[in-house]
Specification:
This protein is of the alpha/beta class. The protein is built from 6 helices and 16 strands. The strands form 4 sheets. Strands 2-3-4-5-6-7 form a 6-stranded mixed β-sheet, covered by helices on one side. A 6-stranded mixed β-sheet has the order 8-9-10-11-15-16. Strands 1-14 form a two-stranded parallel ribbon. Helix 4 (90-93) links the parallel strand 6 and strand 7.
Length: 219
């Protein structure tokens, strides 16, 4: 899979980890406004106080610790569109893991992103955004590319990968996704492209492309 993006700007972001799982919520700052990525447990107040012109909520996947405050943010700001991988939409519509999640019903300004092991591109407020579908951790598990950064959710971590033994996970899909990830080319970015995961510290594309080969051999 290759992806070209003419604007390789590095948009700054702020990040805080929330909840018992220390799930990273990112607010990506662009001249036009902010993109909110994976608002988990108790993140709503911070998100609403830290954004002056929120452009969209972007979800990497549907696990509860990444979506827990979606309904709360949308109740406060229904004008903010939500982008969610279509294959994980059921995880928002019901509390399927019995975690106390407030279910969310998708509205007219929300977008269910369909990638089917490929990619889907959007231009929001003049900013190019790409969803790259890497199922395995969840059916809709995706990474989000904004400018010169990758937000990898629970697919790729620093020196690790997402678990594939949960309900709705798939070892076969994870292995195939890792194979595709190891060959991912981001035109103009190079191996030093920074990856910002859903938990823990950032890492680099080239390093993790080598690292996942060890996981591929073990799955």
């Amino acid at each position: 899979m290759s992806i070209q993006n003419k604007a390789l700007e590095r948009f700054p972001h702020v990040c805080r980890a929330f909840g018992a799982y220390e799930t990273n919520c990112y607010i990506v700052q662009t001249p036009q406004g902010e993109f909110i990525i994976d608002p988990g447990f108790d993140s709503a107040q911070w998100v609403l106080e830290s954004t002056s012109n929120p452009l969209a909520i972007l979800l990497t996947h549907g696990h509860f610790d990444h979506i827990f405050d979606v309904a709360k943010i949308k109740a406060a700001r229904p004008d903010i569109p939500l982008y969610c991988p279509r294959a994980d939409s059921f995880m928002l519509e019901s509390d399927c893991f019995d975690t106390g999640l407030t279910p969310y019903q998708f509205g007219a300004n929300d977008v269910l992103v369909s990638c089917e092991k490929g990619r889907s591109d959007f231009t929001l407020a003049g900013v190019e955004i790409s969803y790259l579908h890497f199922p395995g951790h969840t059916p809709g598990c995706s990474v989000i590319v904004i400018g010169d950064s990758i937000y990898s959710g629970d697919f790729i971590f620093k020196r690790s990968i997402g678990r594939y033994d949960f309900p709705y996970s798939s070892a076969a899909d994870m292995r195939e996704s890792l194979v595709r990830f190891s060959a991912l080319e981001l035109g103009g970015r190079g191996d030093s492209t920074e990856i910002f995961p859903g938990h823990g510290d950032s890492t680099l594309l080239g390093y993790e492309q080598e690292n996942v080969k060890l996981w591929i051999a073990r799955i």
